[in-house]
């Protein structure tokens, strides 16, 4: 299991039975790209975690170097590394800019994606580690202050901070709401666009990543080795499905879900209708984040100092 296991703590048992659809056992391969020029097994580890796609390039948060790395999606060429705040862990492309959550700086950096230059830096809560965009505003999950901060995407103006559960990590925007995974509460909080709590929903143990397929919200449960499906219009729990050990990052490619398993060093392709695992791909060691570029998925490998990529077809 990843070193994250020594940091996180599971606190509540999930009372909902876990569903077990048919699982594809064959493991497929991915292309692995070192982020430091050497082999992924020998290079100094920069702790890749967050991943985002800007329409042309893939960006990786290389947290131990206090930087982000820019990779050309078409061929995997590394185009540069750019300094941001301390311990960048989450990335988001929104409004033609890259937004970076700096865990130890308690701020968010806004970058020009063409040049990598810092446009502005905005203070938020303590331990920012998750980002989402609602079309107008940037939402930031603050892991250590147990709240979510709302920033105007154009000006960076702080529009307020709103309490959620313990150790919020993941965010997504779905059905005109912000959905927040509370890692230490084993819940997901739904916020209105004004920050009002619309509901708190029990999920699995150690909820981490969250993504929407349009009709449903999907939550990875890091300690539960599972994926929980919530109905986006009312939060109704539609089932919990087995995936791998240390379920972390999650993305939707328009057809299928992709779930990163940090403890197994794999990423799984999941059917959002049935919850069945359609394929399993081997990644680098200790993967965390995943992003979709329109044709391929990209997975950040925390313990290998690399990124893995493969076609979704």
Give keywords.
single chain; mainly beta; five-stranded mixed beta sheet; disordered N terminus
Please characterize this protein's 3D structure.
The chain is an all-beta fold. The chain has one domain: 7 Propeller (Methylamine Dehydrogenase, Chain H). It is built from no helices and 30 strands. A hairpin with a 4-residue loop joins strand 25 and strand 26. The N terminus is likely disordered.
CATH class type: Mainly Beta
Topology as a string of helices (H) and strands (E): EEEEEEEEEEEEEEEEEEEEEEEEEEEEEE
**Please, how many domains?**
1
CATH fold label: Methylamine Dehydrogenase, Chain H
User: Mean pLDDT, as a whole number?
Assistant: 92
Helix content: under 10%
Low-confidence stretches: 1-18, 38-42
Characterize the main sheet: 5 strands, mixed
Gyration radius from CA atoms, angstroms: 18 Å
CATH architecture: 7 Propeller
> Which homologous superfamily in CATH is the superfamily?
YVTN repeat-like/Quinoprotein amine dehydrogenase
Query: How many strand elements?
Result: 30
Strand order, sheet with most strands: 1-23-22-21-20
Strand residue content: over 45%
Shape: globular
Distance between the termini: 29 Å
Class per helix and strand makeup: mainly beta
């Amino acid at each position: 299991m990843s070193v994250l296991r020594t940091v996180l703590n599971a606190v509540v048992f999930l009372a909902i039975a876990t569903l077990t659809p048919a699982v594809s056992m064959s493991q497929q391969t991915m292309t692995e790209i070192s982020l430091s020029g050497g082999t992924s097994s020998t290079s100094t580890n920069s702790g890749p975690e967050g991943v985002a796609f800007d329409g042309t390039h893939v960006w990786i948060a290389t947290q131990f170097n206090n930087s982000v790395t820019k990779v050309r999606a078409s061929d995997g060429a590394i185009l540069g590394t750019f300094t941001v705040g301390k311990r960048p862990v989450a990335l988001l492309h929104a409004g033609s800019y890259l937004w970076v959550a700096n865990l130890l700086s308690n701020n968010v950096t806004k970058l020009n994606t063409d040049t990598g230059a810092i446009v502005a830096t905005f203070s938020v809560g303590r331990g920012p580690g998750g980002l989402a965009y609602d079309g107008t505003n940037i939402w930031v999950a603050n892991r250590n202050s147990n709240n979510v901060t709302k920033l105007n995407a154009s000006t960076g103006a702080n529009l307020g901070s709103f309490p959620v559960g313990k150790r919020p990590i993941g965010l997504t925007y779905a059905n005109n709401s912000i959905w927040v995974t509370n890692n230490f509460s084993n819940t997901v909080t739904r916020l209105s666009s004004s920050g009002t709590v619309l509901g708190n929903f029990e999920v699995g143990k150690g909820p981490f990543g969250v993504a929407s397929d349009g009709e449903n919200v999907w939550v990875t449960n890091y300690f539960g080795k599972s994926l929980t499906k919530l109905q986006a219009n009312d939060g109704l729990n539609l089932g919990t499905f087995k995936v791998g050990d240390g379920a972390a990052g999650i993305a939707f490619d328009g057809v299928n879900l992709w779930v990163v398993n940090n403890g197994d060093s794999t990423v799984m392709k999941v059917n959002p209708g049935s919850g069945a695992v359609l394929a399993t791909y081997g990644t680098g060691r200790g993967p965390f984040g995943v992003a979709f570029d329109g044709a391929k998925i990209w997975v950040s490998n925390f313990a290998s100092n690399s990124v893995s990529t493969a076609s979704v077809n």
